[in-house]
Amino acid sequence: MTKTLYDKIWDAHVVHEDTDGTCLLYIDRHLVHEVTSPQAFEGLRMTGRKLRAPDKTIAVPDHNVPTTPDRENGIENEESRIQVEALDRNAREFGVHYYPVNDVRQGIVHIVGPEQGWTLPGMTVVCGDSHTATHGAFGALAHGIGTSEVEHVLATQTLIQKKSKNMKVEITGSLPPGVTAKDITLSVIGATGTAGGTGYVIEYCGQAIEELSIEGRMTVCNMAIEGGARAGLIAPDEKTFQYVQGRPHAPKGAQWDAAMAWWKTLKSDPDAHWDKVVTLKAEEIAPVVTWGTSPEDVLPITDSVPDPASFAGGKVEAARRALDYMGLTPGQKLTDIEIDTVFIGSCTNGRIEDLRAAAEILKGRKIKVKRAMVVPGSGLVRAQAEEEGLAQIFIDAGFEWRLAGCSMCLAMNPDQLSPGERCAATSNRNFEGRQGRGGRTHLMSPAMAAAAAITGRLTDIRDMMAETA
Amino acid sequence: MEKFTTLTGVAAPMPLVNIDTDMIIPKQFLKTIQRTGLGKNLFDEMRYDDQGREIPDFVLNQPAYRKSEILVAGDNFGCGSSREHAPWALADFGIRTIISTSFADIFYNNCFKNGMLPIVLPQEQVDILMDDARKGENARISIDLESQTVTSADGQVFSFEIDPFKKHCLLNGLDDIGLTLEKVASIDAFEAQATQARPWV
Ligand code: SF4
């Protein structure tokens, strides 16, 4: 029988299958952060259950941590501090791998996992966080779970699951200049809607995906969840193997060879069955931004704010509400929208290549927005950016240079928008209040966010590239 | 876990599509290390103004809906983050069933871990129940999990699908972890075999 990549990874991890198709799936890596885990550890304690596989469990605080340099003196917000302290206590008591706040390897859980070589092709990876889909870039089956499931994995190293359907998203051809992985993933959501992937695991493929770097592939898979899919996957290839090799927890020597032998088989069979197929032409993808409060509210930067009446069904009301919230009028050109704040960071776009792309635009220029911040995805990304001179470019341009964490992606720490403040963000959600109550978020790529910082409005990166050239 | 068998109650109408988990429970309330007490902050930013006063227009602030046990909602309810705080907040408020044409995957699963029943019905049936919900206390909706039916205020009966395993757990209030630990021998066997096949993991 022919199989997709998803089928292959799934089959290799089924512990038990019931007659109705409910499966017990073995979990290779469990990533844990401070927000969705305290109740799960507490559950173990209350029932006297043990942590089954501490060696496959990795903990790092990221959502709550301040990103200002004074954080080494402790966290001021009491509730955040309690949560981070709870993780600290749980990690040590249960003996899991742990990267505390002041460790240079600390960072956003989905950046730390791959960076440390915890995430490997063919694995099952879960975390109490929906953007676990990021790890799919390595050809790992990775998805978010709720806190009850976190407890379930801690206690049993398995998850009760039913198999999803297979969906193929193919991006043919090569991306035009100025168009990035972020534009691919947002355009796919624009085409399929936020529920387009519900019930599916997506495999992204095609020439444009193959041509992406591993970091770009992480950006694409990261937002599979915004498209409603349980997980996003990309078949591992030479680039993947090169990225993984030599990382602290990647296999070495004979184990590496054995792993490679299996990893090379991890691709969908040519005639595998797909339940749904979506194809986009890379040549037709433009740099995009979101205009509304759902990631599906996405348009090419050359477009204008849509008229809610142009939608159908419940979307009419949702679009009206979105424009009201965003303070926009139908017909307004997207490039006329003025920006107050720029946020570069998050597990979508907080890696070194993202910082390089933004710095390239910012070099020798000054920002026009009220505030701009860069929050590297991990301490190691930060260190590398400093070494490459990127940090200085950001600082000279007028950006704040922060420590690693989730920061303004969800604004659980002090980095928040105030009501009405408009932000160009490289993160993944533009929901109402996501970046602070009343805050207005436009999602885009790092280069586009940098361009907006320079001009003070949403900007077509291609115009700026012409200027630079 | 609390059992779910039958429920008859007031349903609150929330026709908005894509109601996300940030709307259901904004992140400032995720800092708790407990599961309870989130009901007062359910839909916080839609429910209260900047001064923390109730916004009278918001459905759950209206007298008829203050004790709602059911939500009838627009497409793709619960999209966004994996935060189980979303079902915890709904349950803590007293809502045990949400009816919609579709749910986000993680939210849907999270409901079952908390004795809640999300119900998927076709658009026409959701529309009928939405009309019932708009009538407040005068139009109660009934749910029977055993027979997998929803009964509208005027007695129309709609059937819904549910995974048999999830149904079984909900009807009996079974704890997933306990059930899985009964299979610990299979997990041990799998682990032994997997360590042979993929020693690098
Ligand atoms: S960066 Fe944002 S999306 Fe990513 S894990 Fe943190 S809060 Fe979630």
Describe the 3D structure:
The complex is a heterodimer of chains A (469) and B (201). With 469 residues, chain A is an alpha/beta fold. Chain A has helices at residues 5-11, 38-47, 78-94, 109-115, 147-156, 181-192, 207-211, 214-222, 238-244, 253-263, 314-326, 346-349, 352-362, 379-387, 390-397, 446-455, 461-468, and strands at residues 14-17, 23-26, 29-32, 57-59, 97-98, 124-127, 141-144, 158-161, 165-172, 200-205, 231-233, 276-281, 288-290, 298-300, 341-344, 371-374, 400-401, 422-425, 440-443. In chain A, 34% of the residues lie in helices and 16% in strands. In chain A, the strands form five sheets. Chain A has a five-stranded parallel β-sheet, with helices on both faces. The radius of gyration of chain A is 21 Å and the shape is globular. The model of chain A has no long low-confidence stretch (mean pLDDT 96). Chain B is of the alpha/beta class and 201 residues long. Chain B is built from eight helices and eight strands; from the N terminus they run E-E-H-H-E-H-E-H-E-H-E-E-E-H-H-H. In chain B, the strands form two sheets. Chain B has a four-stranded antiparallel β-sheet. A four-stranded parallel β-sheet of chain B has the order 2-3-4-5. Chain B is globular and about 60 Å long. The model of chain B has no long low-confidence stretch (mean pLDDT 95). The interface between A and B is large, with 79 and 56 residues. The site of iron/sulfur cluster has 13 residues of chain A, from helix 12.
